[in-house]
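Team,

Forwarding the record for the chain on the shared tracking sheet. I've put the sequence and predicted structure together so nobody has to dig through attachments.
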Amino acid sequence: MRISVLGAGSWGTTVAALVSKRHDTLVWSRDPGVAEEISTRHRNEVFLPGFELPGALRATDDIGAATARAQILIVGVPSHAFRQVLEQARDHVPPWIPVVSLAKGLEDGTHLRMTQIIEQVLPGHPAVALTGPNLAKEILAGKAAATVIATGNGTVATMHQEILQRGLLRVYVNDDVIGCELGGALKNVVAIAAGMAEGLGVGDNTRAAVITRGLAELSQLGRAMGGRATTFAGLTGLGDLIATCLSPYSRNRHVGEQLGRGRKLGEVLAGMVMTAEGVRTTPVAVELGDLHGLELPICRTINRVLTGEITARDAYAGLRHSPAGAESGPW
């Protein structure tokens, strides 16, 4: 099949590299230098330094050319650029082809998930989410992993499962698109909290408590928005949460860790090449909590840290003095 991937970041390039071993794959990068490097040197040193890419993988900086040839369109840009890139590509998208989101975030202002944006901008196209505990560098290095295709269309799910199944990457399907996308987006907020714990050196007991209570919060909000409880105990909930909170490759954990060490948010983000989705998702989670009448104390506390209202140390001091209550309820 002809597969086009819009976005040459670490995850977009990794997915493109995987499918290029069996399919005609083209990556679009807005940076002509990155596109040239992928096509000629088979590397992407900006986002995946040190990794060799398949020789069959090609890239372009022409979004129209990349889109027009696609039989499957995969969109691997950050959530804040997702709508804009789809609108750029819209006039070139062939009729009825599936559109797959790799982004784990929520749109600021509208609170929309990425598949909902696909349905708005490209009505009539099957909207699919690829999500789960997927750290790009580990997968590109050939380490075993599992991912999830989320769509309500069983035929589309099976097709993408067959296309993406490769080597040690195990692909599951799930028709709870709401739960899968919310798990992927909201776990980034908890990962910032877990990173702060690491930066502050508060200990593994505290970090475990925050991760667990964070899971309770994202499950609570996810269920209120229509997701299934079982989804948040699976790969796109608990699985993704564990990987993002514990891995040194995690961007959101890195942000939290640096905040815990006393650095300012602007300084931390300025030193990063890739996007930490949790920074933008946190205020959206708070707004959704207000909308659904939920306390979400961890999300709200992280938002106060990100806005500069309190420090990471203040946040954890507050956690220690919060009443415990019942475990099934919020802190």
